[in-house]
Fold this protein.
Amino acid sequence: MPETEHLGSDGDGEKQVTPQILDRSVLDPPTATTHPTTGSKEMLWLLGQVADEITPWGTLPKLRDRQLRTFYPTEAQFASALGVVTARNMAFSWEIQGPPLTVARSQDLLLNADQGRGWESLIAKTSIDLYTQDSNTCWELVRVADNPEAAVIGINHLPASNCWPTGDPMEPILYQDRHSKFHLLKWYQVVALAELPVPDVMPGPRGPGMAGLQLCALTRLLRAAQVMKNIAIYKEEKTGGRHTRAIHLLQGVNMKQIEDALAKMKLQADAKGILRYLNPLLIATPDSEVTIDVKTLELTGLPDGFSEETEFKHYIAIMAMAFLTDYQEFAPLPGGGLGSGQQSQILHQKSRGKGPGVFKKLITHTLNERILPANVQFAYEEQDLEAEKEQAETRKIRAETREVQQRSGELSQEGIRQEALDAGDISREVFDAEGGSDATPDVTVGDEEEAEKAERAGPFDDEWQADERALQRVVERALTAIGKEVRKRLEREGRGKKALGDVPGDSEFWAKMKALFLSTIGTVPNRLLGHGVGQAEQLGLAIDFDLVNQAVLERAGTFTNEWWTQLEGSTQRGLRTAIQANIETGAPLKTLIKDIEPLFGKARAKVISATEVTRLYAEGNSAAYAAAGVERVEWRTVNDAAVDPICEALDGQRWAVGGGQSPPAHPNCRCWLAPVVSDKPLVKVV
């Protein structure tokens, strides 16, 4: 199994970026010696667009996104609100639950995302793109190898401006790097995120079609934001210089008197260092009998009845709706003081709904379904008084239930403590102090906690579980496909009971089922054998890979056929039993179809995957041990409460490599063979 790359430490506690993660990324960051430059074509384009109206939504999406990016920093209220919402998203605490080793690696992956800049950097860039761009924002998934089964070793933000949706689900994104080079990203190399996605419009006679678009917050707010920007510009320009505010038409004062008075007033302002405001112009007439008549022409002004306070409140309300949140997110509650205890409590309660809830679900589902291993779960922490009160009441109910179970004899005292630990009702320290032995050693770690690198009974438990789940999905697909063909055959021949009995022995039919099985399974056994070899390498053995690769290739060529022979035999036996019972009872065909469902169902796939992963790991281990010159192996169990008595009796026994017994010893066996070096079994990853 290839060693999983992760972000490590330089020995002084400083985290560093693994170069291989950067090498596998399509991002091309400048080196420390590279001087940033500004593309002349880009600058000319921006200058040419300054005076243009923003392109309507749905036409020239990339041009519109550029205009939106140019616009939002110029509107102070929206830019500030964007900062508030982005900071809120960055500040959300989270946790990962699962096996300790996988939890530690997953935490390391997230905390060092965005090419080592960290989780906060990834979330900040993602938030800004989500709220200001109509194109989907994207995350690049850097994998240890170029295949969908390979582990994710890096998550990078890809700017929405550089991502071009293709509409092809297999290769959904075309990414343009800073050298204008394009990269076509496969579905397992990228995820596209959208807060409010819209249906894709397929190409047709009236247009080229659109894919990967959303209605971002700025689009939803744009018209109101433009009005507020215009008002702000008006106020800035009105107060930003010594401009002519109006023209006064005076009767009784000649032009020479006015010009002299203006010049004198400007000289006085210059002498005093006044830059913005000029006092009203006063002109004294030499003749006290002359009546001065003044007419004023206002050159600029806001609409009649305009109220800045009312307009601002309306704008905040529209902005809150655009961000899918509430008014008090950006301004005090009506009638309440800013930062009051009541408002803080309401904001806590609101953090689980609307905009915050949408963002949390978007990130949570993306990480759990597309990125993190299947045996860990990412979740945001919920922290408010109401939730804590509900949790306390729930803990009380669980405690009362356990008390009833103990009195009835359903649970022992050890079982009570184990359930309390798993539910989080008692701490690990209390559990250990009472002498408990944890049978389900999953852990929960938050984004600001250091994951414990716990020692385990077996050094490869996390990888083992992930491979079991992966193989289970493949086997389930194969069984489902075969089951479908068997049901079609039975339904076709179900009119004659005798004909039903011929199905298990029809060699031509089962030859077709074998081809279907082999095409579905593909090269999965080869990969699992390779994982077994990789485990041996992680134990620190020096392996002759020329020798071991030849052995693995030879074994892979025979394993799948042997596997199908066993599967075919057990399936045919199960079919014969079910068909014979159906013939004897005279039950309808639908009863037979229901009776054979377990032969092609999830439960059987789970048992097969658990057993065969154990077998393939053991064979890969043994091939690697032999190629490394190891002479003896020791049988090891996972040392938990579920160990079978057969394996418990074998635990610790030793024999020569290739001799003696090899796992699995029974269905669902989880045992493994440890190499013995200098009379000691190697059981820890180096």
About this structure: The radius of gyration is 36 Å. The first strand starts at residue 8 and ends at 9. Residues 545-585 form the longest helix (41 residues). The chain has a mean pLDDT of 77.
